From TrEMBL:
GO cellular component: adherens junction; catenin complex
Function: Cadherins are calcium-dependent cell adhesion proteins.
Origin species: Cyprinus carpio (Common carp)
Biological process terms in GO annotation: adherens junction organization; calcium-dependent cell-cell adhesion via plasma membrane cell adhesion molecules; cell migration; cell morphogenesis; cell-cell adhesion mediated by cadherin; cell-cell junction assembly; homophilic cell adhesion via plasma membrane adhesion molecules; morphogenesis of an epithelium
All residue ranges annotated as the Cadherin domain in the record: 82-162, 163-271, 272-386, 387-483, 483-601
This protein's name: Cadherin-12
The keyword Transmembrane is assigned to this record: yes
The keyword Ion transport appears for this protein: no
Keywords: Calcium, Cell adhesion, Cell junction, Cell membrane, Glycoprotein, Membrane, Metal-binding, Repeat, Signal, Transmembrane, Transmembrane helix
Topology versus the membrane: Single-pass type I membrane protein
Compartments (UniProt record): Cell junction, Adherens junction; Cell membrane
Primary residence: other
InterPro entries assigned: Cadherin (IPR039808), Cadherin-like_dom (IPR002126), Cadherin-like_sf (IPR015919), Cadherin_CS (IPR020894), Cadherin_Y-type_LIR (IPR000233), Catenin-bd_sf (IPR027397)
Length: 795
């Protein structure tokens, strides 16, 4: 059979080769195959350089080559030919594009195209190449380049594959026939447009008769009705996908599908037996579990959840039942105490039903079951029972030893005390159960005793009962009251008559049942004191009230006031306390200022802190005044002449740097140059004129015969000027004197003549004076003379 299949496959390949090669055999009259766009061809004579359309023998656009060719020789693809090829080997064919020279080759003389190696259509389905005919000698193109396609012809060499397998699916149990399960898809890498190589057909190899598959779509559906999960839950289905339309010789692939039947509530709960027998001791506590029963459900999950209920009847009042969520058991609980002597057995019915019902399966019958429960009560030897759950007793403190304060009783009691539970203050009669004091009690030490009494059964000492007994120690009046705290009381010197200066209260170590009740009074009731008295407010407090005014610390600073305090016990006790009252100074609203005796001599209304603050302020002001006076004196000293050799100049120095020669805001340079331009009533620019200060009249010095007198007058006037500024100023007296190398710089002499002066000699003084020489060289004669003399004076 295998050999027959190989022969059939070989025969099929041969047919495909013959079919693919037949259209490309040259026939008489066929020309060069051209593209559908109709490229231009060379002239038939071959000598013309122009192109013209020529008649096409036939139209082509693609070749075919068989994939997976296994022959020993290159596979023939096709033949290219042009009308210009006369068979004289004058035309050469060239090939370029995808795989040219590596996969495909062309005979340059004949135009035959061959495939050099085996091709796989699934790797590359087609190749685009370009062919051209050129003159073999000149390589001149005879026709334009033409493009064509070589398609790889498919063979059935790929089987269908399930890319996502194996698969898992589920379908509800008891589903009808044809219920959709899932869809599977197989892919075939072969060419779906050529033959049946990629046409897949699905079939079931394993899984019938439970499921079916659509041959074309691969949809899997149920094939049998009422498949029961409780019978079989998991199914394994084997699906086959075969190409060639499922025909003989086609390739096939398989996959596995695991199909699970999901549960539905199609089974009711069922008790394993109809009667359950339980036994419970009569001593069981209320709320305890008596027993467990269970109804089994074949379903799973929420479909197997069971609800239990006791059918109303005999045991409905004594018992209850709940469901254990983990194992779905019914737990029977005790609702009331049991007594074997009263009733020895109980019988009732329990019903089990599903919590979640499916209406599709109501016709299967009722989804519930019933069972009978019989409970037998067991007799037990019970411990003694006290008549009360707890006891409370009262006893006065200081009660004599051995006094009976109460008793406890129990049924079936052979009473005995447990020394570990009773403290040393009490004792108990083991037969009668009476409790008596064993020591003197003190409420102020322990106000309440908590003891336990244990009752033991005579014939069974293991059975015991315990009860709590609380003993309250009652108070007796044994301590007198006293002041609640040591009060610090003061009275203002400005206090008025009848003013309450202190509120007092009391305390008592006793604790009477009716509560504390105190009264306050002066020691000599009815006799009025001169200074203070006690007023009882009736609410366990009292006030200290003044009886006069005009308290003075100089007369008496401290007063002592006794206070009598009584309690409200059956046997009244009292005590006397003393209040110390100090006389203090207060402000207008009654707030305390000071109570010290030294403060008597302080000014009224000022505290010590205020006086210290005032003194500090006065000291600071004095320091500021001293510093100010010192600064003023220092400035006056700085205004004196710094040079006593030349009394004609008075230069006042300070640390600020001036603006230089061009700063003309502080001085009137014209006045310095020529005293003749000084006008009357002109104020100085460098100081702010004072109101009421009369301007100085300049002394006419132009025509004065004695220049020295003029300078002396100017000097006296300047020294007596109180408005002179405390900063740089230059006073020019217009008289240089005799013996000066620079001669006179006076503006008075400079006005006598208008002669020009040559400043070239400044260049001879060095580089420092070059800039000055250039400035004065461009000015007028008079201005140059005055500016230079001023600069020289400053220099």
């Amino acid at each position: 059979l295998l050999l027959l299949l190989l022969l059939l496959k070989l025969l099929f390949f041969c047919c495909l080769i013959i079919f693919s090669c037949a259209p490309f055999q040259s026939r008489p009259g066929q020309e060069w195959p051209h593209s559908q766009t109709g490229p231009l061809a060379a002239g038939r004579n071959g000598g013309s350089r122009g192109f013209q359309r020529v008649k096409r023998g036939w139209v082509w656009n693609q070749f075919f080559v068989l994939e997976e060719y296994m022959g020993s020789d290159p596979q023939y693809v096709g033949k290219l030919h042009t009308d210009l090829d006369k068979g004289d080997s004058a035309v050469k064919y060239t090939l370029s594009g995808d795989g040219a020279g590596t996969i495909f080759t062309i005979d340059q003389i004949t135009g035959d195209i061959h495939a050099l190696r085996s091709l796989d259509r699934e790797v590359k389905p087609y190749y685009t190449l370009r062919a051209q005919a050129v003159d073999i000698e000149t390589n001149r193109p005879l026709e334009p380049e033409s493009e064509f396609v070589i398609k790889v012809q498919d063979i059935n060499d790929n089987e269908p594959k399930f890319l996502e397998g194996p698969y898992t699916a589920s379908v509800p149990e008891m589903s009808p026939v044809g219920t959709y399960v899932m869809k599977v898809t197989a892919t075939d890498a072969d060419d779906p447009t050529y033959g049946n190589s990629a046409r897949v057909v699905y079939s079931i190899l394993h899984g019938q008769p439970y499921f079916s598959v659509d041959p074309k779509t691969g949809v899997i559906r149920t094939a049998l009705p009422n498949m029961d999960r409780e019978m079989k839950e998991l199914y394994q289905v084997l699906i086959q996908a075969k190409d060639m339309g499922g025909q003989l010789g086609g390739l096939a692939g398989t996959t596995t599908i695991n199909i699970t039947l999901s549960d539905v509530n199609d089974n009711p709960p069922r008790f394993s037996k109809s009667i359950f027998h339980l036994r419970v001791p009569e001593s069981s506590a209320v709320g305890s579990a008596v027993g467990r029963i269970k109804a089994h459900d074949l379903d799973i999950g929420k479909n197997a959840e069971v609800e239990y209920n006791i059918v109303p009847g005999d045991g409905g009042a004594m018992f209850d039942i709940t469901t254990n969520e983990h194992n779905q058991e019914g737990i029977i609980m005790l609702k009331k105490p049991l007594d074997y002597e009263t009733k020895k057995a109980y019988t009732f019915k329990v019903e089990a039903s599903n919590a979640h019902l499916d209406p599709r399966f109501h016709n299967f019958g009722p989804f519930k079951d019933t069972a009978t429960v019989k409970i037998n009560v067991l007799d037990v030897d019970e411990p003694p029972v006290f008549s009360k759950p707890s006891y409370a007793m009262d006893v006065y403190e200081d009660t004599p030893q051995g006094t009976i304060i109460g008793a406890v009783t129990a049924q079936d009691l052979d009473a005995g005390n447990s020394p570990s539970d009773l403290d040393s203050f009490f004792d108990i009669d083991p037969v009668r159960g009476t409790i008596s004091t064993n020591e003197l009690l003190d409420r102020e030490s322990i106000a309440q005793h908590n003891i336990s009494v244990v009752a033991t059964k005579v014939n069974n000492p293991v059975l015991t009962s315990k009860v709590a007994v609380t003993v309250h120690v009652l108070d007796i009046n044994e301590f007198p009251p006293e002041l609640a705290m040591p009060y610090e009381t003061f009275v203002c010197e400005s206090a008025k008559v009848g003013q309450v200066i202190q509120v007092i209260s009391a305390r008592d170590q006793d604790l009477p049942q009716a509560g504390q009740k105190f009264s306050f009074k002066s020691p000599q009731e009815g006799v009025k004191t001169k200074n203070f008295t006690i007023r009882d407010f009736g609410n366990n407090t009292a006030g200290v009230m003044t009886l006069r005014g005009g308290f003075k610390r100089r007369s008496q600073e401290i007063y002592h006031l006794p206070v009598v305090i009584e309690d409200g016990g059956l046997q009244t006790l009292s005590s006397t306390g003393t209040l110390t009252i100090r006389v203090c100074g207060c402000d207008t609203d009654g707030s305390l200022l000071t109570c010290s005796a030294e403060a008597i001599f302080l000014p009224v209304g000022l505290s010590t802190g205020a006086l210290i603050a005032i003194l500090v302020c006065i000291v600071i002001l004095l320091v500021i005044v001293v510093l100010y006076v010192g600064v003023r004196r220092q400035k006056k000293k700085e205004t004196l002449m710094t040079s006593k050799e030349d009394i004609r100049d008075n230069v006042i120095h300070y640390d600020d740097e001036g603006g230089g020669e061009e700063d003309t805001h502080a001085f009137d340079m014209g006045t310095l140059r020529n005293p003749k331009v000084i006008k009357e009533n002109m104020f100085r620019r460098d100081v702010k004129p004072e109101l009421g200060l009369c301007p100085r009249r300049p002394v006419a010095s132009q025509n004065s015969a004695d220049i020295s007198n003029f300078i002396s007058l100017r000097l006296q006037e300047h020294e007596g000027d109180t408005s002179a500024p405390p900063y740089d100023s230059l006073a020019t007296y217009a008289y240089e004197g005799e013996g000066s190398v620079a001669e006179s710089l006076s503006s008075i002499e400079s006005v006598k003549g208008e002669t020009e002066e040559d400043y070239d000699y400044l260049n001879e003084w060095g580089p420092r004076f070059k800039t000055l020489a250039g400035i004065f060289g461009e000015r007028s004669e008079t201005d140059h003379d005055l500016d230079f003399k001023l600069w020289w004076k400053e220099f």
